[in-house]
Amino acid sequence: MLKVAIIGGSGYTGGELLRLLEQHPHVKIAAVTSERSKGKPISTLFPNLKSCRLKFESFKIRNIIKKADLFFLCLPHKTSQEAVAGLYKAGKKVIDLSADYRLKNASVYRKWYDIQHKYPALLKNAVYGLPELYRERIKCASIIANPGCYPTGAILGLAPIIKSAFIDSNSIIVDSKSGVSGAGRNPALPFMFSEVSGSVKAYAITIHRHTPEIEQELSIVSKKKIKINFTPHLIPMDRGILSTIYVKLNRKVNSTDINRIYKKFYANEPFVRVLTDNEYPNTKAVVGTNSCDIAMFVDKRKNSLIIVTVIDNLLKGASGQAVQNMNIMYEFDETTALKTASTYP
Amino acid sequence: MLKVAIIGGSGYTGGELLRLLEQHPHVKIAAVTSERSKGKPISTLFPNLKSCRLKFESFKIRNIIKKADLFFLCLPHKTSQEAVAGLYKAGKKVIDLSADYRLKNASVYRKWYDIQHKYPALLKNAVYGLPELYRERIKCASIIANPGCYPTGAILGLAPIIKSAFIDSNSIIVDSKSGVSGAGRNPALPFMFSEVSGSVKAYAITIHRHTPEIEQELSIVSKKKIKINFTPHLIPMDRGILSTIYVKLNRKVNSTDINRIYKKFYANEPFVRVLTDNEYPNTKAVVGTNSCDIAMFVDKRKNSLIIVTVIDNLLKGASGQAVQNMNIMYEFDETTALKTASTYP
Amino acid sequence: MLKVAIIGGSGYTGGELLRLLEQHPHVKIAAVTSERSKGKPISTLFPNLKSCRLKFESFKIRNIIKKADLFFLCLPHKTSQEAVAGLYKAGKKVIDLSADYRLKNASVYRKWYDIQHKYPALLKNAVYGLPELYRERIKCASIIANPGCYPTGAILGLAPIIKSAFIDSNSIIVDSKSGVSGAGRNPALPFMFSEVSGSVKAYAITIHRHTPEIEQELSIVSKKKIKINFTPHLIPMDRGILSTIYVKLNRKVNSTDINRIYKKFYANEPFVRVLTDNEYPNTKAVVGTNSCDIAMFVDKRKNSLIIVTVIDNLLKGASGQAVQNMNIMYEFDETTALKTASTYP
Amino acid sequence: MLKVAIIGGSGYTGGELLRLLEQHPHVKIAAVTSERSKGKPISTLFPNLKSCRLKFESFKIRNIIKKADLFFLCLPHKTSQEAVAGLYKAGKKVIDLSADYRLKNASVYRKWYDIQHKYPALLKNAVYGLPELYRERIKCASIIANPGCYPTGAILGLAPIIKSAFIDSNSIIVDSKSGVSGAGRNPALPFMFSEVSGSVKAYAITIHRHTPEIEQELSIVSKKKIKINFTPHLIPMDRGILSTIYVKLNRKVNSTDINRIYKKFYANEPFVRVLTDNEYPNTKAVVGTNSCDIAMFVDKRKNSLIIVTVIDNLLKGASGQAVQNMNIMYEFDETTALKTASTYP
Fold this sequence. Notes:
Four copies of one chain form a homotetramer. Chain A is of the alpha/beta class. Chain A has helices at residues 12-22, 42-45, 61-64, 79-89, 106-113, 131-139, 149-158, 193-196, 210-222, 255-265, 319-329, and strands at residues 2-7, 27-33, 56-57, 70-73, 93-96, 126-128, 143-145, 167-178, 201-202, 229-234, 241-249, 272-274, 292-299, 304-311. Chains in contact: A-B, A-C, A-D, B-C, B-D, C-D. Chain B binds chain D through residues 12, 179-181, 185, 187-189, 191-198, 236-238, and chain D through 12, 179-181, 185, 187-189, 191-198, 236-239.
């Protein structure tokens, strides 16, 4: 049994890790920490985990280090920097759900996160935990920088064609729509029910921190410097991200050709489903699962391509992907604890 | 492998049966019928079941009878009467999710459903499929009358104390709040998003057909003729039923005593969770599961008891309970395919 | 022009007062206070009031007292005690939206609110601001104790028959369902979108502070000591309260008789609509208005009466009623600024 | 008093017209028609209009033509063609909320709507009813082609800069998010509460019929042939459309410059509010009103412009704009019956 610990486990990503790992046949949750809730039973914060017998404890690195071999970190960025470094030095494996080790370039990190990275040398050791792109490297990684929710949907939507000669890689626009759980679990006025319900708004236009993360990965795959427009929106629903991606085409292609490229690219992927060209992705079909559904549409009048992806922001966009990464690292079947179909409706 | 068929499988209860049975290790779904959608792949109606390879077929009893041993019926009442009788005569086992075989008394059925029962003699063969009350009889039943959604929450909330001398069994009021999926999947104006969203209403006051079903079961358990007030409400949410039950107390008792009675009554039940007295049941904690959470509160000022139960109307209130009944009938572990914790949020 | 001030105006009731009073032809809003938001334009907190040119200021009684003649107080209970007393002594008129002057009996207040009332002698000067019961006294009141949201719906539902010999006034149960705005605007985990969405729960069972308020008013009208069961529920919607009220009947009456009593009782009321017996009240029909819709149903099988009322908790349940009270006090047409029909859907 | 009739008044746009026109001091509603609901009181279909004494009648042009001078048509496209022509020939004024007279080019109409226009000669008589562009022509129009909901938000967002040399008019992408009431009031599975709730999806990608309408108006304003990408999305909310519009910039400009252009363009418009550059439009701020809020953001990294507009799809996007057009045609104050601020939350 693999012993794991969840650091900062009282938020939504922590809750989903608990739920998934409790069902995992090869894993034992050795510790869950939360400074604010230390001493409380897990079930007081997660009414869906009534049978869970664990309690939150305080995160003291010296105590906790002996308890587990793999650490899931659900800490805010900046705090996570330190914790990852400490655990790494102690020879532990880490899956970091924060943004702290995702950007390879410390100066890009500094620009977008407004702080200096204290362990820039460690950045190159971290593997960006998107299995569809980095499965081999994940297998032997010590530090997994688990991707952001928006980047997961955007990168999976673009990876199959970003290298292609028939798109204009300079024209990419990602317009994303997210459920409210993406904002985390800390009480704040803009995410109160009565403020959000029955309403939609855009936010962080031109300045969202997931922008450089998407650009980094698209640049790596395409071997070109790519910049994008990215606009996130807040939707009155708990979970789910739908990303509508616009790309200019350099030449005439049809939907069937594009579809074939995607089908091939994701042929062996357990969690990516390429829809045939008349089906519209719907977050309701993926919420509660680790799947990403993708559909693509050619606009012949404009000679452009519209790609739509949907994921569950807390699963494929966070904790599900973290468990998928763990499964890969420890050579468990990659779908272990991640097979459930979602309920409908 | 047990071969099962789902008759009338294009609605929400059919979809949940499909989802649950696909994960069941001892079951093979041999056929799914739908008159309206015959020929269509399952996945066109259930976007969450993309990997399901089945297609809807038409329900012809002669053809289908050879395909399966157990039949789940998700037909409208009245239509179900006939189908149950036909399958029963052919020696098949049936779990009927309609109301047609729930009421033991054909004249009560006639009064509330406005039609004559054509197979009154069969009523006594049908076992009311509430495992917490009838587990032994379910084991050898041929026809299971799977309980209604409201009755499940109401009866589980009252069963432990209905026989007790310290309540006034004549004073019971059940005030229930249900998600919209309880109304089924047929398009109708009152259940359109824009009509329901942001709104609550009561309906079928004094005339809801689940009333005699609740009364029948409470009367059987208590060995007294019991009548209740029952008022259902429509809540702007997909799933879940919360029932608030009011009962007068004949003598002074406190919450701890009541709690003890419930804990004892449900001590060995895998799907009933008796909350300790300060926790309020929340549908969000049970949606996606087969669990029923129950809490009880004594109002000392009024010498009355308030019991609150929550279930998922499509699972413990319909398809989950149907699978639980199947597990009992075929001596599978009772929780097979029903163990998942729900997502949160 | 009547000069008014709103004290504690940054919450939802403050926002609704601002919206209503800005449209009022005989009123000038002279000041709006908020300690937390002082200096900020109103529109930064209320995106619907973009054209409003006012700014929040700090509440200093000496400064503000000269600015206005009538003061709307949207302060938390306890804080309001002091403010009401200060304004009253300065000869000002006050409409207090807090609970501080609603309970006539200081020891009942102490029991339910856990604090001592510092101005018990003032309680008898305060008029309970429910126009349907106290219109004449409101006309010359100096202090209006504006009713709570749940009490408004409950009392209006019971007032016409509470004196009647054919009901058992000892049997009253009020089961209420409220939108989330009733919890106020302070950020707190239980009212975050992702916690509330898609879910229903009961809360404060047997201990909600609106209980003695309902009991006081029913006792006054009926001239009997009345105690009730009251259970509030949280519904995933912004606004609206639906109350389902259960009463035992002492003799046989039918719905038509009951309906006639209600029609007569509310014959001249501009904001109470008695529905005919087959229409179910729906919060969507009253949200955005100052109306209360009432319907009544006799359950012949149980010889009991079910009354359903719906209001907008922020309008008839708070700010709308406050403006109605002001209209009465200053002899404006009672419906001024309150006539709008709600949007649908 | 102007006598008006509403033809096809049982849907959501009909309901909003009824609500607005009932409050209008210079208008008398002479007739409301609905084939499906003829004979029924208005209030049975619109619970918010309980005090309305009108009944639906059947639409017989000979009878109805004498009753009113101005006709609001809320008919499906194709049906509306005929009705407009008939009323026009009878010398009546018409505000047509369908799409039938919006496209000036009958062959474009045929291509997108799959039917032949039977009165192509009438198209040139119809004025596109967007007051911000066509106020003068609206004053003396006989037929108003009331704009579509998506086009209203898109065109208002682009009109001030579409002629400008610093944008690439070939690069326009409109990504719109709409509430469910935009789909109308006819019961259909995709718009049932349980299908839509908690979910977002794109639809009609590359093929939505509002595309040529947006293109036509942008082409007229800019005097260039303009084609756009347009993608609509369905959001789990009743009302509101948010459009996120992407345009490439040909030269460096900053947000302040852009803001100044918009402020100037809309300086005298009663229903367009240009937000200052750090405020994000929110549908909640305009729902229930006839306002359009607009904000613009320059993405310096990509040298592109992002414009965000929000409207209420049933008001500025349909019935509110229709009443605004009527006010202009009959020289009433343009804001009559349209001044209300929305409730919040």
